[in-house]
């Protein structure tokens, strides 16, 4: 079976959703200079993510530790973290994490903090396959590098209030409807993963 998947990965090597549907493009913030710094102690921007962050069946499915830094702004009431794979052989990126209602004072997340458990620091929305919590990289074997874009959106009071009123089944599509036009600052960190 793995050999069939490997052949399919090579066959669809150039078929990718691409960054046109990445949230930074959809929300039209990609033309603004990013003002939020995101870093991880496990990988650098545009560097390879370690196997412990890879998805079930490939790695340990542990969300990487993250540090978020931005100059506070009185208009910022909360922020959102979204992780998307922009290289699957599908029409749209895959959301691997959606976390919201994060206080601007919260600046660090430990290894595996987004494991799906309830937290006082954030609420988890729906990610890949209806899962809540982090879904690590698990690209098709032989499909080459996949880019996993960690995106942080600092939002205003209006969007924060609307997110507080949401149930815990928030989807990426609904998130876009709420935060579009309400973003104060944003930033990205890109991690790579591939299975040969």
Question: What's this model, at a glance?
Answer:
This protein is of the alpha+beta class.
Helix-strand pattern, N to C? Answer: HHEEEEEEEEHHE
* Coarse morphology: globular
Question: What structural class results from the helix and strand content?
Answer: alpha+beta
- Report how far the terminal alpha carbons are from each other: 15 Å
Strand order of the largest sheet: 2-9-8-4-5-7
Strand content: 25-35%
The total count of strands amounts to 9
CATH topology: Phosphatidylethanolamine-binding Protein
What report would you give on this structure?
The chain has 196 residues and is an alpha+beta fold. It has one domain: PEBP-like (Phosphatidylethanolamine-binding Protein, Alpha-Beta Complex), CATH 3.90.280.10. It contains 4 helices and 9 strands. It has helices at residues 2-11, 23-26, 157-164, 172-179, and strands at residues 37-39, 47-48, 66-69, 78-85, 94-102, 108-109, 123-124, 146-155, 183-193. The protein has a 6-stranded mixed β-sheet with strand order 2-9-8-4-5-7. Strand 4 (78-85) and strand 5 (94-102) form a beta hairpin. The mean pLDDT is 92.
